[in-house]
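Readers of this paper often ask what the protein records in our data store actually look like. The remainder of this section carries one protein's record, kept here as part of the documentation.

:::
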Amino acid sequence: MKISPFKLERYFAKYEFKSPYLLSSSDCESFSIQELLNLEENSRDKFFDHWLGYTESEGDPELRTEIANLYSTLSKDEIFCFAGAQEGIFVFLNTLLDKNDHIIVQFPAYQSLYEIEKAMGCEVSLWKLDEKLQWGLNLDFLHKNLRDNTKAIIINLPHNPTGMTISSEKLSQIVEFAQKNDLYLFVDEVYRYLEYQEMDRLPAIADIYSKGISLGVMSKAFGLAGLRIGWVATKDMALLAQMRAFKDYTTICNSAPSEFLAKIALKNKSKILQRNLNIINANLQLLDSFFIKYKQLFEWIRPKAGSIGFVKIKFDQNVTDFCLDLVEKQGVLLLPSPLYEFDEKHFRIGFGRKNMPEALTRLEQYVKENFNIGEK
């Protein structure tokens, strides 16, 4: 397969580990191994005794049981683990789709959610969010873009990079449309459980639709990107069987230490999620004040979930030039919207890290120095 470069990941490869202030990170504050082990009594000795042989391809049974507990109706047999969410996306798409199939993908999106299909020779319709509707989804798009060869709908809720979500009623309408037209519905749910209001949490698609596939990962809501543990959840056992066979050509199985640590994290999920939400909520208050103060420069549609938002610049400058100048002068890394192939006027901001206040101070210093804005 020949596939286009992953713009976002290439950008991060260049700047992420050289920039002292990551104000674009999509994940939450992480943990050390020791901090994780401290969450469970006697876990240190168990970790040191853990066997480093091959693991089960679909994931450790106990780990899959803990993952299944994140859902309302699923068992461990309906969970399939991968080395991060990216592998889950890659395996799902290569298993499901054939050349000339058509899919509908919510946009903007993580590039692999549509680029892999293009590389396979599929037809892709991008379902663009409407900024005027607070990044809402217009369901008329589905009806207007349905084709005889449409195979699946791919969405991401809560959404990267806007932090938007939709109502349960609207999700039900999407499910009804998919069911009526016999479509698969793949939902990237990696920010699920980071809703600021619990009433905004949607049911997992794997719980409510027989051809629904939920994507999860330890990286985002749990802040454990280094474990590289992701999964798909679905009641479609035939599809799962095909995905298991395909994984034999990718990673085969996951890391044994990572699975052990992921189990500890999931057993203590309430503590971890609450800690991360506390960080997010404190940082959001600072961002609210910042964007009110500089409303002549930035337009801030406040997210409803997750640890990222999508900010529009109002000044007359290419957003990539702005972001590059910022990282050069202040060491603050933002993510310009062209990396999402979206436009030239937005940037992604991340607020799941403890040091966000310091990064925001640096951003404010840059704004004052470059836009001649003083204290008011």
